[in-house]
Write the structure tokens for this entry.
Amino acid sequence: MLLNSYSNLNFECGTDEAGRGCLAGPVTAAALILPEDFLNELLNDSKQLSEKNRDFLRPIIEENALCYSVTHIEPGIIDEINILNASIHAMQECIKKLNPIPNYIIVDGNRFKPIANIPHSCIIKGDSKYLSIAAASILAKTYRDEYMNQIHEEFPMYNWKQNKGYPTKEHREAIKKHGTTKYHRMSFRLLPEQLEIEF
């Protein structure tokens, strides 16, 4: 069972992102504050759950959270400020939208930049240790998947509905054949032989 608090303060916020390693689409973050007595035995790191269970948990999380927020950071900004900064920026933007304002922030991973003088802790594999980070990981993942399903309709040849923009063999073959789109991250190594490709 995951833990429901790290700091033991009221209004502790958990935050996480999805899509950091993708070649296309946004990096998406979520942040939320759960009630102190929130429990759910199914809730876990989104990567450990099936799509069906993530979709089942999302409305439960949204209905029970004291507040939540989701932010997409588009490929143009990722290319401009790099993926690490874009991931942190996405999480910060989510936290700014929360009401009540968090008293403490717990972040999945090992990097974060302070926001609004709110104390924070970075927790490696936090999404498999704390309920609020796990819940944030599910919101980030499901909202990003939804986004990728939508842009799949615009560019079906990349099969984003299936690969969600990750660097699968099929996705890279499609880039080789069809070139890039406005949704591709041009600062990423889109193909192994990147230097030979003209964009």
User: Anything to note?
Assistant: The two ends are 48 Å apart (CA to CA). The first helix runs from residue 51 to 64. Residues 195-199 have pLDDT under 50 and may be disordered.
